What we know:
D-Maltodextrin-Binding Protein, domain 2; 4-stranded mixed sheet
Amino acid sequence: xxxSRWFKLAAMCAAIVLMFSSAADAAVRGKLxxxxxxxxxxxxxxxxxxxxxxxxxxGATVINSTVTGGSGVNAKAVLKTRMLGGDPPDxxxxxxxxxxxxxxxxxxxxxxxxxxxxxxxxxKVFPADLLNLLSTDKGIWSVPVNIHRSNVLYFVPGxxxxxxxxxxxxxxxxxxxxxxxxxxxxxxxxxxxxxTATHLWESVALSVLGPVKWEQxxxxxxxxxxxxxxxxxxxxxxxxxxxNTDAPSLSWQQATDMVVKGEAAFNIMGDWASGYMTTxxxxxxxxxxxxxxxxxxxxxxxxxxDSFGLxxxxxxxxxxxxxxxxxxxxxxxxxxxxxxxxxxxRTDSDLTKYDAYLQSAARDWRTNKIVGSLxxxxxxxxxxxxxxxxxxxxxxxTKNAQAAANAAQAVAIQAGIGK
Length: 419
């Protein structure tokens, strides 16, 4: 009799859970507008998520409001207009860290998601260091869908063998082999538009400063006018002598293509380039392309994370919450990341679904020293990032290290970083 009562109670509980689940699913109807910069070669990963969501919630239709442009340069400008104009998308892509917190959280334009983390058990599956990036003392502000690595050096192994050069472990080694490559008619290092120069700069800076002083740049303990930071600009200028002159007119994909086609030997890019080369170009990791930590940064993982939050006043809140739940799930992350060229933000992902590069990145994520990216919004707020782009433009024109250091220090002070 007691066993029978327990079975009845269990069945009743299951029915109640199913009822609430069905009610929640029924509430997910109508439209969901998601805003991102994942287009073109990054589109398949996003489309896989949209397809999964619409199968989970047949009554919902996703409006994919994508604004093209590498690293979200164009999308952020459009988003700013919409957020300030009182017309937020239901949810939007943003880099975890200060890009969101220092821009929209401080302006009280985002909802606290602490309750969702507790409900979904995410505090147990997302690493503590990552949770700290997503949080303030007032809440947790976004759901990470991935982890990217910024400091990756890409090359084609067969081309290096043909040219008789190896993979440089330091920038001194790169500067030794660069003239040899140039003499063969090969561009030593391909670069694209402005933000890719900043992306390269942060890897150079990490190699000179190391992880401790890199972090000190962002807490005000290291001045941008210090000799070691000036040295970063000087070394950066030396490296730029061996890059392509048409860089301002190229996207990051086109800069990557130069390596694949044998026009350039190396490119430093985030590992979304791996996703591009495997998904779009159909190259096999390890043979079609090779990778290493950018010179001077072995054992350091410069990270960024794409995440989505819940804007205050969005039109389809329940639909957006359902999207966030799917993003944070193991299945959602393992659907998205193998296509995107990134690893899951969760610690329980199924690595058998990931290729050789991503398995390598996952191992490094667990063992390397972790630091945040400047170019992709982890360590600095949007005001600094926008003004730093101007500093970069000035340096690319003048190659004046001292002037760049002075300008960066002024920008840091104005953005509330440094003294």
